[in-house]
Specification:
rod-shaped, 3 helices, three-stranded antiparallel beta sheet, mainly alpha, binds zinc ion, 10% strand, 2 domains
């Protein structure tokens, strides 16, 4: 999906560039009115491609937010337990506070920051 978006951006930019060049070139010695029409069509197609690519980016962005919340739990969510009482924790018990995963235990109501060794 991401690669497709980048390709759409690049292809769109190239089309817009070609469209502008064709319109500019139409004023040259070998140019013709047909170049202007063709250039405008190509430019519009390119703009539409960029527009669509930027529009579809809003959906994966939403996905990234939920993905970030899931990330701290991707080690082993099923076996994650409370540090204080050892009670089993669900993904819903983890909230993102200031970019850090915070666990709110439903059993002993302890709130603490979920600390995990960074992978890097
Ligand atoms: Zn607990």
């Amino acid at each position: 999906m991401r690669a497709g978006k980048i390709i759409a951006y690049i292809a769109g930019s190239i089309l817009v560039l070609f469209g502008v060049l064709l319109v500019l070139g139409s004023t040259g010695d070998q140019g013709s009115v047909g170049w202007i029409v063709f250039g405008i069509i190509i430019g519009v197609v390119g703009l539409v491609m960029i527009f669509l690519a930027s529009r579809t980016s809003s959906k994966p962005a939403d996905k990234n937010v939920t993905l970030n919340i899931d990330l701290p739990g991707n080690v082993n969510m099923d076996t994650l337990s409370c540090q204080a009482c050892g009670g089993p924790l669900k993904p819903e018990d983890i909230t993102m506070v200031a970019g850090a995963p915070v666990v709110t235990c439903p059993w002993c109501h302890t709130t603490y920051q979920l600390t995990e060794e960074p992978k890097w």
